[in-house]
Amino acid sequence: MFLEDLSGSRFTRLPFGVKTAPVIFQQAMDTMLTGTEGADAYLDDIIFTGSNPDELLQRLETVLSQIQVNGFRLRLGKCNF
User: Fold this and answer.
1) Taking every annotated instance into account, which residue ranges of this chain make up the domain Reverse transcriptase (predicted)?
2) Which of 2-6, 20-24, 52-56, 68-72 has the lowest mean pLDDT?
3) Which one of 14, 58, 69, 76 has the fewest beta carbons within 10 angstroms of its own beta carbon?
């Protein structure tokens, strides 16, 4: 998909077949989670830990907020909590 304006056009999604797509996506995930303690990403999986249920819930809220702020979307059916 393309976005066009006066400055030209650009992709709004990573095009299919880009050889470095996994690296680009991993960098985006790492950038999104920078500064989020106890959270780490491996491709499209995000794993977060906490030392107690309250800390785990707080980190879940932080991760979900970061996902929303960065324009990512989740499929509830593919999420495991």
Assistant:
1) 11-81
2) 2-6
3) 76
Mean of per-residue pLDDT scores for the chain:
88
Tens of pLDDT, residues 42-66? 988 999 999 999 999 999 999 999 9
Domain ranges of the chain: 20-72
- Write out the two tokens for 36: 């989020």
Distance between CA atoms of residues 28 and 24, nearest Å? 6
DSSP 78: G
Taking the CB of residue 48, how many other CB atoms lie within 10 A of it? 18
Taking the complete model, does pTM exceed 0.85, yes or no?
no
